[in-house]
Amino acid sequence: MSTPMHDLDVPPLPSSDAPKVLVTGAAGFIGAWTLRALLFEGYCPVVFDLKEDRRLVADICGSDAANMLHWHTGDIRNMDQLQAAAMGTERIIHLAGMLTPGCRANPRLGAEVNLIGLLNVFAIAQTLHQKGVLYMSSAGVYGPSGAQYPSLQRCMVPLS
Questions:
Q1: Residue 62 and residue 101: Cα distance in Å, rounded?
Q2: Which of 11, 116, 137, 140 is the most buried (most CB within 10 A)?
Q3: In whole angstroms, what separates CA 15 from the centre of its chain?
């Protein structure tokens, strides 16, 4: 059993009857820390991510946890893949998304991943009668000035 990030406590592995929570985008930094918190709270996280790279999760949660997680590789834009991953879970934590530089480089893909992906999560949660959905955003919603609250002003100003 490897210890995560040298001096961190190893989270307990979930029991067989632990409630299952789907975490989209779980292979990233915030996702791995979310998995760790879920394990400490007694949940059984289920991963849905574009890639099956468990290294960061192993660093943060320990290799035993990273290896035992039920890992679904898929695209948040694909309803069938998302629904297959969500089967048997009671909640969804939605972290999958593209950051601002990727959205600038490919606005259509950014909209598909960030908007359609979120709508897919809500639709699957409704279809499967999930108890709840938690979704996050980045600091980008506050704009380049780092305002205290998200602003629609940027959205209302014509770009040309």
A1: 31
A2: 11
A3: 22
Assigned token pair, 1 = 């059993």
- Domain extent, residue 114, equals 20-137
Whether residue 97 is contained in a domain is answered as yes
Q: Is residue 8 situated within a structural domain?
A: no
Which regions of the chain are under pLDDT 70? 1-7, 138, 140-144, 150-160
77-to-24, 49, 120, 121, 152 alpha-carbon distances in Å: 11, 11, 7, 9, 26
Condensed to tens digits (0 to 9), the pLDDT of residues 93-133 reads: 999 998 888 988 999 999 999 999 999 999 999 999 999 99
Residue 36 in domain: yes
pLDDT of residue 158: 47
45 burial (CB, 10 Å; 0-12 / 13-18 / 19+) is buried
In this prediction, residue 159 carries a pLDDT of 46
